[in-house]
Known about the structure:
Blueprint: E1 3-9, E2 18-30, E3 35-36, E4 65-73, H1 77-86, H2 91-94, E5 95-99, E6 105-106, H3 108-115, E7 118-123
Amino acid sequence: MGTEYYIKDKTKEMNQGIYIGKRSAAGKFCYKCRMTLHRGGPDMIHTVTGQWAAACMKCNSNDFVSPAMSFTFNINLPDLCNTLVESGYNLDNDLCIVGSNSEKAFSFDEFIEGLKECAITFNS
């Protein structure tokens, strides 16, 4: 089960927020070669079809991370941030990012830093 992330206005107690995207498990991943161990490639990691290699298909290493994380963006985050700033929002003071499975609110910098843990990113 993944976590969905939303941008919310700190000044409004219960607003829906703007859906950013979802972080989810991405299976086995070789960080040395920056590639998934799914034989079908990154587009197949969230499907039930295909097979996983026992070792990296490029370097043959068994030193991989499982499960690695992926993030699927629902929006273009830089464009959205520019639009919000042009609308008068201060990204640090007025807005935060929250996850559907967490009580913690993240600043934009904390959220971007957390994305570095995601081995694979998709744009929808």
